[in-house]
Write a sequence for this structure.
């Protein structure tokens, strides 16, 4: 009979530990995902901005020297991330590939113009900055037109500001919820040992002596949950890098390492603080209140 009861108690204890580790793992994993998203959100936003192209069209009077000179000057500009020269013959071929017919056979001549497709650096994809760049280009007498999606530029910048604000709000809220969830799991675990705590206290054990094994056990569970969360986060990073290499998510290794260390530190810190206050609560209870 005693053996069966001991096995039951052991299974219940293991189940309690498992639920604590699982809750710590899930909470830290979600916080880690959020942290990785935050450090990469600016990079993702910049990457999207730099894909918005500005196309500069040249007049038919512009000769090869004019086009070459413009390309060389463009390479020296701080705002230009990359540029591609598209001759009117190349543009005609691209149009033919898109529509599936050779429109030149109907027109008899190529109405398209030589152009440069310019991708600006993210910091210059702003309404004021891009307007100054456009004005500078228009000073060139050989340029006939400049085309880019003005509405998209404004929309991207407005939405990035809104998203950044909401990310900060959600981050704070999730961190608060994370602390509450881990704290609740640890309090339930300690609650099952409240009679042991009170018995030790009644035979003269000091509060620090009683508290120490509970704190050490919780820290170990926190470390286990944090290690599992870190392994899961590394798995997510590897998956994203393999399937979406253009994102270059592993480029910022220092910030990724900081997030992983932060996850580990939170696992230890939250469990230590939660266990300290949970045991303190039961140590201060009267015997009658335990029931």
């Amino acid at each position: 009979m005693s053996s069966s009861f001991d096995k039951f108690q052991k299974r219940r204890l293991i189940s309690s530990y498992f639920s604590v580790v699982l809750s710590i793992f899930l909470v830290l994993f979600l916080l880690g995902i959020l942290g990785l998203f935050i450090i990469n959100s600016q990079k993702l936003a910049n990457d999207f901005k730099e894909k918005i192209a500005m196309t500069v069209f040249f007049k038919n009077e512009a000769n090869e020297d004019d086009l070459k000179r413009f390309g060389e000057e463009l390479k020296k500009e701080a705002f230009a991330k990359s540029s591609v020269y598209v001759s009117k013959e190349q543009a005609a071929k691209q149009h033919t590939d898109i529509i599936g017919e050779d429109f030149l056979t109907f027109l008899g001549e190529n109405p398209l113009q030589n152009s440069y497709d310019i991708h600006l650096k993210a910091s210059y994809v702003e309404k004021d900055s891009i307007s100054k760049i456009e004005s500078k280009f228009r000073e060139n007498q050989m340029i006939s037109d400049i085309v880019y999606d003005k509405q998209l530029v404004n929309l991207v910048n407005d939405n990035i500001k809104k998203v950044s604000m909401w990310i900060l709000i959600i981050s704070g809220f999730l961190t608060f919820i994370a602390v509450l969830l881990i704290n609740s799991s640890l309090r339930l675990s300690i609650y099952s040992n409240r009679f042991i705590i009170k018995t030790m206290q009644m035979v003269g054990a000091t509060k620090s002596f009683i508290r120490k094994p509970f704190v050490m056990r919780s820290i170990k569970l926190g470390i286990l949950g944090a290690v599992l969360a870190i392994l899961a986060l590394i798995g997510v990073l590897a998956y994203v890098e393999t399937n979406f290499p253009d994102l270059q998510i592993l480029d910022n290794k220092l910030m990724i390492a900081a997030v992983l260390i932060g996850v580990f530190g939170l696992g230890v810190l939250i469990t230590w603080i939660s266990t300290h206050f949970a045991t303190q609560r039961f140590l201060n209870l009267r015997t009658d209140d335990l029931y």
